[in-house]
Amino acid sequence: MYKYIDQFPFHLKNGLSTIMTTPPSETKITNIVIAGMGGSGIGAEFTRKWIEKDCIIPLHIVKDYNIPAFVNKHTLFIASSYSGNTEETLEAVEQAEKSGAFMAVITSGGQLMNKAKMNQWAFVQLPDNIPAPRAALGYSVTAQIRLIQSFGLLKNNMTRQIRDAVSSIIYWKEEIQHQAQIIAGKIAGKISAIYTSSDLEPVGLRFRQQIAENGKSLAWHHVLPEMNHNELVGWTSFNPNLVAIFIRSSDESKRLQMRMNITEDIISQYAGNQIEIWPKGKGLIGESLYLVHLLDWISYYIAEIQGVDVMEIDVINYLKESLQYTLSGRATKVA
Questions:
Q1: For 61, which of 33, 52, 171, 228 is 20 to 30 Å away at the CA?
Q2: 8 Å CB contact between 115 and 121
Q3: Residue 13 appears among annotated catalytic residues
Q4: 10 Å Cβ neighbour count for 129?
Q5: Average pLDDT for consecutive 10-residue bins of the chain (335 residues)?
Q6: Residue 323's pLDDT is what?
Q7: pLDDT at 168 (0 to 100)
Q8: Does the annotation mark 293 as catalytic?
Q9: How far is residue 285's CA from residue 39's CA, in Å, rounded to a whole number?
Q10: Gyration radius of the chain's alpha carbons
Q11: What topology does CATH give the domain 2-163?
Q12: Starting from the edge strand earliest in sequence, which strands make up the sheet with 102-107, in order?
């Protein structure tokens, strides 16, 4: 995993030039749906947040077997599955195809790529030499942005912002890793409570997932100001095993900045440790990608400190193997 975290900025850069096949369409697109699970689905969270103020049509994310009833011939339906064999995504694709949606696929192969080629769908083929979907985020998120841009649905050129972010990450590379090692030492062996602004929620979600998969540890995340209306009340007693992590942004509004500061003051009385993380980079995309790289390194060093295998996902494999048999004992493909 070290290699793939280290290569993240180059995955972003290469993802901007990966071959994309988009058959011509005169259909007017009125909504976007992205289906994907786990490491193949996290890119959609970033895409939705990044285009929120730039795209004039709504984007919905599916992390399940079923698609929303509004999917029709005016829907751009993007299926993201690194393996191309993800059970839930394949089922969603079948439903979207029957609904007449304009289909697009992001994958390295498998059943999904076969369907895309057979049906002449739009597709972006990812490199097939990455050992885990979560390590392919740089490719999947750029593919989603490029697909949406190719339909003229964005007012601004976001690929330029991604390139700027790549340069920033490379420039700060040594500092990022040094900071990650220090922070990992404060988090390892603890349960992390991760707090972000709404704009940076995909970052918090990604960090929680990476702590679980890479670090084999539990965490939760929430966003401000929403958590000020509920979860804040749950902080009532000191717990030395809890670490509160506040992921901040230079673009916070004055009111949000005040809420963050006051919330930190309150929680500092009850958390065993408290950490504030500020990104470098410009704008939402620049800050988000800088933070992804930093937090991925933190999850890697947590695993190293705790002496666990960062790549091991035995329990997920066990779940998939168990699902291969229906109640009748008939085998079914799960990947």
A1: 228
A2: yes
A3: no
A4: 7
A5: 92 88 80 95 96 93 96 96 94 96 95 94 92 93 93 88 95 96 97 98 98 96 98 97 97 97 97 97 95 98 95 88 65 46
A6: 84
A7: 95
A8: no
A9: 19
A10: 20
A11: Rossmann fold (3.40.50)
A12: 20-21, 122-125, 102-107, 75-80, 31-36, 59-62
Residue 18: name the closest of 141, 134, 118 by CA.
141
Q: How many CA atoms lie within 13 A of 267 on its CB side?
A: 27
Q: Do the Cβ atoms of 191 and 241 come closer than 8 Å?
A: yes
C-alpha 129/C-alpha 240 separation (Å) is 41
Q: Give the active site residue among 11, 213, 221, 287.
A: 213
172-306 matches 2-163 in CATH topology: yes
Q: What are the residue ranges spanned by the domains of the chain?
A: 2-163, 172-306
CATH superfamily of 172-306: Glucose-6-phosphate isomerase like protein; domain 1 (3.40.50.10490)
Q: Look at residue 327 in the predicted model and tell me its pLDDT.
A: 45
Single-letter amino acid code for the residue at 131: P
CA atoms within 13 Å, Cβ hemisphere of 189: 8
Which of 3, 28, 229, 254 is catalytic? The answer is: 229
> Is-contact 291 201, C-beta < 8 A?
no
pLDDT at 24: 65
- Secondary structure percentages of the chain, helix, strand, coil, to 5: 50, 20, 35
- The tally of CA atoms less than 13 A away on the side-chain side of residue 260 is 24
74 carries an active-site annotation: no
